[in-house]
Amino acid sequence: MDSQIQAKIDEWLAFDKNPITRAEIESLRDAGNTEELKRRLMKRIEFGTAGLRGRMAAGFSCMNDLIVIQASQGLCAYVLQNIPNAIERGVVVGHDHRYNSEKWAKLTAAAFVSKGFKVYLHKGIVHTPLVPYTVSKLNAAAGVMITASHNPKDDNGYKVYWENAVQIISPHDTGIAAAIEANLQPIAWDLHSLANVDNLVIDRTEEMTVAYLEYIASLSRTRETNPSVPLKFTNTSMHGVSRAIIDRANQVFKFKPLEHVKEQQDPDPEFPTVTFPNPEEKGALDLAIKTANASGSTYVFAQDPDSDRFAAAQKKPDGTWFVFSGDQLGSLFAGWILEGYKASGRPIEKLAMVASTVSSKLIGAMAAKEGFKFVESLTGFKYIGNAGRSLEAEGYNEGVLYRSQRRYKTWT
């Protein structure tokens, strides 16, 4: 065995306390599978502005218990160094329904608790937007969501939100990566420790969900007339987490109950009906459209598994379906916000909207004609979100943020 590979095997076995992933590496060692050991151990999974995301397996290049613990220890150290009153403000942790997600959320919480942090650990599966919302609502120091979003079933991830409730950007990514490297010795394996620190591990999931629903309801201008809307809607959660929050939001907005695609409505980490559970993928809406045709629905909605992407389709008079592009939906949302803003009588120059540089230029043209502020940002919702936060700090009241890959946000 190559000495460098053997050193990494020894390091892994010294750190890893999970018998399953230990056995994976031991089996590869015993079989003399140097190529696979090299792939698994010689290069560490990279921590970037999207946090971590990769295949679930043993090794430093994959997602597993050890990597999550080390990432959490590094993040904890970096937050302590860079955010005032971080321990008292606490961190927010949530997870989706994928394999290992619940366990990794608890391992993340344990790492922060070991340093005395207050941890708002969401109970049960949640949709990704609830984590940054909770960070903002509770003025937490940071947030972590365990999810691989729309990746295939064998993947999982570790998404980080900064104190501004937006995904991290440079220099935080490199700073956290360096802090992880400086805190590799795992100290937070014992999940039983969470049961003994009730004053530090706090569940405010329902309270935050209610507040979130009240917030999005405040954005509606038609709640009182929504019950009389004759349209029928079909929704697919793509085997993800969104059904519960979609149903509650539908009630808050006073719409009639929508129809769910039965084969895809419940959280299922196997994602049995789709290879890539992404509403952008060609054919992703086929089952939803089939369901809608059978029930007489004229609109189809879809969310990706962690419910931070949205897609929609409309049935045309000739019976065929039109699937809206990300740019088309973003422009529709922008037009809706603009219409309501103008009707409110507020100064148009205080309205702002943001889109990525690769998105449609239509909102920019709207801004030039109507007189509101439009900002283009780098591609990626982390950049769009941070641009939105900067506009808020400058005193802008309301807007739409979107990227062409069907991710949107409004704020007031």
TrEMBL record:
Localisation? Cytoplasm
Keywords, in A-Z order: Carbohydrate metabolism, Cytoplasm, Glucose metabolism, Isomerase, Magnesium, Metal-binding, Phosphoprotein
Q: What is its main location?
A: cytoplasm
Q: Which InterPro entries match?
A: A-D-PHexomutase_a/b/a-I, A-D-PHexomutase_a/b/a-I/II/III, A-D-PHexomutase_a/b/a-II, A-D-PHexomutase_a/b/a-III, A-D-PHexomutase_CS, Alpha-D-phosphohexomutase_SF
Q: What class of enzyme is it?
A: isomerase
A molecular-function term among this protein's GO annotations: phosphopentomutase activity
Entry EC number(s) = 5.4.2.2
GO CC, alphabetical: cytoplasm; nucleus
Q: Which Pfam families match?
A: PGM_PMM_I, PGM_PMM_II, PGM_PMM_III
BP GO terms, sorted = glucose metabolic process; purine ribonucleoside salvage
Q: Which cofactor does it need?
A: Mg(2+)
List residues of the Alpha-D-phosphohexomutase alpha/beta/alpha domain. 45-183, 211-315, 326-389
Q: Which SUPFAM superfamilies match?
A: Phosphoglucomutase, first 3 domains
Similarity-based family: Belongs to the phosphohexose mutase family.
Tell me the protein's name.
Phosphoglucomutase
Q: Which organism is it from?
A: Thanatephorus cucumeris (strain AG1-IB / isolate 7/3/14)
